[in-house]
Design goal:
By secondary structure, the chain is of the alpha/beta class. The chain has two domains: 132 residues, Rossmann fold (3-Layer(aba) Sandwich), CATH 3.40.50.300; 61 residues, no CATH class. It starts with 11 loop residues before the first strand and ends with a helix.
Length: 208
């Protein structure tokens, strides 16, 4: 395992982030194809709040029964819709969930191997006012808003109102790009996106 020059004991951490429907999941899949370990915060959140997830018991203590499915797992769609309207509820959820996500991500990072690893963090810019010392590079997947809308509507039942509500809780495109070390423009074909992702991967390999 190549040690992180910053932390000394695990591969360099690359943050992969981007706005709603920008193509983060597709790009992260490409990095996995390039044999890079990927730690996805949304997937960790899902595992923590589904079936026998580690935070379910605490969530049941803090949240009404209406926020849970018949199988006992967290109804994320219902929670998401509610927290857009209730800041107090949002903060309560984050207080419970974020430390556990961070803990699981750290454990996965410490066992990772390779020249670098990718952390997929959709709201990285929003929740990190200051860049932590263990972050090597920040890669932003970017595309114009009109393309985001088209992709969001294609992949789910989100309507324009829901899309706008989600987007209103994210930083501006300008602010996100300002936080980037590297940008992957996702405004073309899937093949083009893969080529751009590979170019970034090769850059990271050569500079790790």
């Amino acid at each position: 395992m190549k040690k992180n020059k910053i932390s000394g004991n695990y591969p360099k951490v690359v943050i992969l982030t981007g706005g709603i429907a920008s193509g983060k999941s597709t790009v992260s899949a490409f990095f996995e194809e390039f044999n890079i370990e990927v730690i996805d915060m949304d997937k960790i959140s899902y595992s923590l709040t589904t079936n026998d997830g580690k935070v379910l018991e605490k969530l049941r203590e803090e949240f009404d029964a209406k926020f849970f499915k018949v199988d006992g797992s967290l109804n994320k769609e219902k929670v998401r819709n509610e927290i857009f309207l209730n800041k107090k509820l949002k903060l309560k959820l984050e207080r419970i969930l974020h430390p556990m996500i961070a803990k699981e991500a750290k454990l996965a990072t410490l066992s990772a191997v390779g020249p670098y690893i990718v952390h997929v963090v959709p709201l990285w810019v929003e929740i990190n006012k200051k860049r932590k010392s263990d972050i090597w590079k920040v890669v932003v997947v970017d595309c114009p808003e009109n393309i985001q809308r088209i992709r969001a509507f294609k992949r789910s039942t989100k309507d324009a109102e829901t899309f706008d509500r989600i987007k209103s809780h994210q930083v501006s495109r300008t602010a996100r790009l300002a936080a980037a070390d590297l940008i992957i423009d996702n405004d073309g074909s899937l093949e083009s996106l893969r080529e751009k992702s590979l170019k970034v991967h090769n850059y990271l390999l050569n500079n790790a």
